[in-house]
Write a structure and sequence with these properties.
The chain has about 350 residues and is of the alpha/beta class. It is built from 10 helices and 15 strands. Strand 1, helix 1 and strand 2 form a beta-alpha-beta unit. The structure holds nicotinamide-adenine-dinucleotide (NAD) and 1,2,3,4,5,6-hexahydroxy-cyclohexane. Keywords: NAD, Oxidoreductase.
Length: about 350
């Protein structure tokens, strides 16, 4: 691909996230086109490809990655399918934006790290889109000035309206709190060293058998304490909030105070109903940044190391949830390749 041509992207997995990324690449992103779509559901993928000129439909990711006009890959299949897709992308030396999780489990994430290192250059960006959310970006920039002093604590709230069918207690950690793991590492520039999970009496809104909400505590390598209220059947809205408490002040995001109305004896604003609404801008910026970097021949953004490190914290989190008590995170040494 030359710099003047658009980036031909194969989108693997065209469910909720994949279909939204196809729309984004087709209608919002500059410098890219959807060259191929892949899904094990042949009818679904054909329907999507038929709506986009020059886009081919595949049911096999490997066939799509070998096709003419495919310069890069966006993986949005379920996490269990990510390792195979990543390995195939490496065989073709294709740049990848891989939805979180990089892979479910640290052993498979380590295999991906090793394979990327064998290539000799970075190819993977992981879809931790909150790093592109303007509010989180502002918070990070403020912390970097040092004006507030050293971060002591980070309080997070992560609320979803309701869970889809099949959502398990482990998924509150692996699918949901994984975002706070990434945000903690990114904002504080520290690794998470231990996890404790407290379990309130489940909400009456939660499906039978689901441990929801949970209260998760991280300890970090720099001595900060981080808590996460994960509450995924709250019923009223999609909310992601964070407050950093530092030595000389605090900073808070996610209150959603964009538009406040006063009417009929009340004041207030709307609460987003899901992540595609709350983080629409972040997803747009993430994909644009990935396309721009890829066209420059660079890889920026969250790396495969970030994907591995969060997988390791997820494992500790699930053990803490199931066994109780404080579980230390087991993390490999960070290779210089990911410095
Ligand atoms: N960043 C975020 O905020 C965010 C939000 C939701 C989901 N996700 C991630 O996006 C990914 C997809 O989630 P989703 O909610 O869209 O799931 P989904 O179930 O809606 O869609 C997955 C799609 O992949 C297809 N598929 C299954 N196996 C496949 C394979 N081997 N090859 C190709 N296609 C295959 C399925 O048929 C389905 O159409 C997951 O990794 C999930 O964790 C990220
Ligand atoms: O997979 C989704 C997604 O990652 C959302 O950003 C998160 O808020 C949800 O809790 C999770 O289930």
């Amino acid at each position: 691909m030359s710099r003047s041509t658009t980036l031909g992207v194969a989108v693997i997995g065209t469910g909720r996230m994949g279909a939204d990324h196809v729309r984004r690449l087709h209608e919002v992103t500059n410098g890219a086109r959807v060259a191929a779509v892949v899904d094990v559901d042949a009818e679904r993928v054909k329907r999507i490809a038929d709506g986009i000129e020059g886009c081919s439909a595949f049911t096999d990711p490997a066939a799509a990655m070998a096709a003419d006009g495919v310069d890069a890959v966006l993986i949005a299949s379920p996490g269990t399918a990510h390792e195979a897709a990543l390995m195939t992308a490496f065989e073709h030396d294709l740049p990848v934006l891989c939805e979180k999780p990089l892979t479910p489990g640290s052993a498979s994430a380590l295999r991906v790290l090793e394979a990327e290192q064998r290539l000799g250059h970075r190819r993977v960006q992981v879809g931790f889109m909150r790093r592109y959310d303007p509010e989180y970006v502002q918070l990070k920039a403020l912390l970097e000035t040092g004006r507030l002093g050293r971060p002591l604590m980070l309080h997070n709230r992560h609320r979803n309206v309701a869970t889809p069918p099949g959502f398990t207690s482990e998924m509150l950690i692996n699918d949901s709190v994984v975002h706070e793991m990434d945000i903690t590492r990114w904002l504080l520039e520290q690794e998470i060293t231990a996890v404790t999970v407290l379990k309130p009496t489940p909400s009456g809104n939660a499906p039978e058998g689901l441990q929801d909400p949970q209260f998760v505590v991280f300890e970090t390598s720099g001595g900060a304490i981080v808590d996460v209220e994960i509450n995924v059947n709250c019923g009223f809205g999609y909310q992601v909030q964070a407050e950093v408490v530092c030595e000389r002040g605090t900073a808070r995001i996610g209150d959603g105070h964009a538009l406040v109305t006063q009417q009929a004896g009340h004041w207030g604003g709307a609460i987003a109903q899901d992540y595609t609404e709350r983080f629409e801008d972040a997803y747009d910026r993430q994909v644009q940044a990935w396309v721009d970097a890829t066209r420059r021949g660079e890889v920026t953004g969250p790396s495969a190391w970030d994907g591995y490190a969060t997988a390791a914290v997820c494992e500790a989190g699930v053990r803490a949830q199931q066994e109780g008590g404080r579980v230390e995170v087991t993390l490999a040494d960070r290779p210089p390749f990911y410095a």
